[in-house]
Structures are given as structure tokens and as C-alpha cells.
Amino acid sequence: MKVEMTNKEVNVIELKVEVPQEQVEQAIAKAYLQTRKEYSLPGFRKGKVPRNILEKRFGIEIFYEEAANILVQETYPNVVESQKLEPVDLPEVSVDQLDSEQPFIYTATVTVLPELKLGKYKGLKIVKEEKTVTDEDLEAEVKGLQNSKAKLIALGEDAIAAPEDQVIIDYTGTLDGVEFEGGTGVNYPLVLGSGSFVPGFEDQLIGIKQGEKVQVKLTMPEEYHNEELAGKEVEFAVEIKEIKRKELPALDDDFAREVGDYESFAVLKDFIRERLEDRAHQDSDNKFRNEVLEAVRDKAEVDIPEVMIENETKAMLRQTENRFAQQGLKFEDYLSYSGKSLDDVKAEMRTGAENNVKTELLLDTISKVENISVDEAELEAEIAQLAEAYGQETKAVRLALEKNGQLEAIEQVILHKKAMDFLAEANIK
Known about the structure:
By secondary structure, the chain is α+β, with helices and mostly antiparallel strands. The chain is 47% helix and 19% strand. The protein has three domains: 2-111, 2-Layer Sandwich (Alpha-Beta Plaits), CATH 3.30.70; 151-247, Chitinase A, domain 3 (Roll), CATH 3.10.50.40; 264-427, Trigger factor, C-terminal domain (Trigger factor, domain 2).
């Protein structure tokens, strides 16, 4: 097999491949076996027509298209390996010559992994700022925990709505006296001050007595998703049917035992402070590592193929759709509500996608330059963590990863983490 390689443009390689004639004949024989089920002739059962009969009737050319596919599939991976290429997308293939008595010649145009040129990536002396946990931070966390254990108590008929109360309301919205779509609700639970409704709506319910009806007048936001209502003055007829108020538990030893079986409230506060300090340390570390990564990435140079950015954007889009699905929401509904098109969302993701690709290339390059690698013990430890998280045996998880071709991806995760660890150590002040 002969191969001629030409650099067409940045990161694009053209391969002209010539396959010997004997392989062409073998591919035609395979093409007959794979396509004969499609043919039927009088006197023969479908799929049982001999090859020579088909060739006499239709010509040997009927096998050429399938033979070409077979030849490309069989030879292209070997060509890529022999030329030491790293494709980032499927090739564009054109057939230059296909004849049963001649070598098969085709051209494959392929986009390959770009070369990243490192700038300064060591000794940048970036400061790692450690955040201190204050008493105010601790009290805020305790208050949040106290609120999470609060009970909603229904107030009596003389109750008056106050901020942070939950009111159960019926409401009907009108524009110029006509009800509009999406402006009606029955027995709707609304926490006053939550910002769940249009600005100005909740404020007008504060001070209203349970059982009373009130007319809420307001101007819809200019950027409201329903263009027919945007910037318009509307009116809501609202009835407050019930008012509920939070009853906070006492912050004492009983509270501590209820939330986590702690000996005392003092022990609970110590645990919360320790957790806040761990979180603060992790946040500081993440912030520092992101600053290091951004600094090193900005100093690196690379021409990223458009297809790599497109593929990363698609991956980010799938992740977003999955997050919506996990919450029981449809991504299409989000697009409708936000007034955005799919292209709008992709455009918003583009910068992030480009940074993600450049980061991957950067960490791969650092790994090569600094001879960073993953040993078997590190790989096994990572798989063991996955197995523990899923409650499975390590051996079973490894076999599943190998079967699905995901073992290499796990190795890359470890490799990139080690490369990032190296950059953090090499650039801290």
C-alpha cells in the first residue's frame, strides 16, 4: 500500500492512498457476500443468486460502492497509524480510481490534533489567598440549618401577611380587562419576598388580611418573555386564602440531636465550623488553580480546528439538556420561555467550548513536556473510587470500562489532574 501525505492547510492533512489490486478483488468478493441478499432473479431465491450471474446481468460495477467502503474501512486506520496522525474528526473521502483490474486509489482529507505552543508555564508566582471563616459565616450557616428545620404553621383568620410568610392565593391577570394566557392560578403557594413573581407583585400582598381580595396593579418588565405583555400595565385580582408562617426550632441540644445525633449544640457548631473551613480551603484551592490555569492558557498559542469547538459545544449542550431532564424539565421549554434559539445558546457556549478544548490540549502538552504519566496503581485507585461510589466490585467496574472503551478516558482524567497539580506547584508564590 502506498501513501502520499500533503499538508493542505493548518491542521488539515490530505492522504492519497493506493491499495494493491489483489485487495480490490478481495473487497469485491466481500461486497458480494454483504449485498447479495438485496438481489433476486427468476429461478433463484432472493439472496441466493450466484456472483457470476449477477455480474453478467448487472456488471461487476454493482459491487464497487460497497467494495470502496470496505477498502477504506480496512486501510484508513492503518494509514493513520503508519503516518502517526491524531485525527479529531472523520475524514472526507473521495474515490479517485476503482476498477477490478487496477489498484484502488482514494483521497482522505482529515483534520488532525493541533500542536499547542507553550508560553511561560512555570514560575508565574501566583498568590493563593486563603479565606478565613468568621463568626458571622458560622451564624449564617446555623441560621440556614435552623430555617431548613422550620415548620409552616397556618395562622388564624385575623392573620396579616408579612415578609417571608407563605400565602396560598388564587389570582387572575388581565390586560385591558381581558384575561391573558398564563396569568391564572388556583391555590398557589407563594413565599412573600422570594421574587418568584413579577417585581412589585409580592410587595402589594404584604399587610393584606387572610380572606381579603386585592387588586394588584403593576407594569410588566420590558424584557418579559411574552412580548404581548412586555412593558404593559396589567392587573391581577388576588385572593389570599391562607397565611402560613415559619416556626423556627430553638437552637439547643435537642436541635443538635435532631439534625445529626450530635451530643450538644456546641458540638454541632464545632462540626459546622470545621465543614465551613474545609469548604473555604477547597474554594481557595479551586480559585487558585483556576487562576493558574487561565494564566498558563493565555500564554499558550494554538490554532484550534473548528470541528473541535463544534464537538465540544455539542457535548456542553447535551450536558445542559441532561441537567434539565434530571429536574423533570424540557430544554425546549427553556428555549421557549427565554426567547432564545438553539443557535443563540450555542453562540453563548462558544467561548467556554473554546477554552475547554484549549485546556485539554494544554494539559496534554504539559504531560508530554514534563513526562507526566499514569501508573497502574493510580488507575486502579481511581477505578476503586468509582466502584465505591456505585456500590460495585472494583473488578466488575474495570471490566465494564474496558468493554465500553472508557478506560483510556479514565486515564486521561488522572493525567490531566496530575498535570494541573504540577502547574499549581510550579506557579504558587
